[in-house]
Amino acid sequence: MLVQQLQRLVDQRILATRRAGNSIFYRIVDACVPSLLELGWCLLDTTQTTPAQAPAVDTP
To answer: Would 57 be classed as within a structural domain?
Structure first.
């Protein structure tokens, strides 16, 4: 299943491959992906709060 997903990313020119013997190595070639991943990690860090840290929500 994972190989099929990686192949789709290769087909979309997001990843590139290099074969070494029986191994296939993948690398990111789309310049937008690293910044999108960085933004995703940043958003994840800001949205994960414990119940004690959760802001109070006023409901009418």
So the answer is: no
